[in-house]
Specification:
This protein is mainly alpha-helical. Helices cover 64% and strands 0% of the residues. It is globular and about 45 Å long. The N terminus is likely disordered. Helix 2 packs across helix 3 and helix 2 packs parallel to helix 4. The protein has a single domain, classed as Orthogonal Bundle (N-utilizing Substance Protein B Homolog, Chain A), CATH 1.10.940. The longest helix is centred in the middle third of the chain and has 21 residues.
């Protein structure tokens, strides 16, 4: 049986999800969230993975306990929901498909 993680309970997981005192995530937690969101969105671009399945897959990684989880979810779901609009905005400034540019850029970084 697979263990279910809860980010709203008590203990280390809840503290990691909340961040610093006062409930605000630290800059480091937000940076980690952005890094994971970029990875998730790139994976979605390559594999056409539905957002729910993508999020579930990333939630299996223990590193997710150390980042701003709400920010990660908002980034992934927001970009996924607005992909056509973002594609049109960026596409107006290039003669190549945006997803091709993203793939090329990510591969060059690797």
């Amino acid at each position: 049986m697979t263990e279910q993680r809860s980010f709203s309970g008590s203990g280390d997981a809840a503290m990691s999800a909340k961040g610093r005192a006062g409930g605000r995530p630290s800059p480091k937690q937000r940076r980690r969230a952005r890094e994971k969101a970029v990875q998730a969105l790139y994976q979605q671009l390559l594999n056409y993975t539905p957002v729910d399945a993508l999020e579930a897959q990333f939630m299996e990684d223990p590193v997710m306990l150390k980042l701003d989880l709400d920010y990660f979810r908002r980034l992934v779901r927001g970009v996924s929901a607005s992909y056509a609009e973002l594609d049109a905005l960026f596409g107006a400034h290039t003669d190549r498909p945006v997803d091709e540019l993203i793939r090329s850029s990510m591969l060059f970084c690797a």
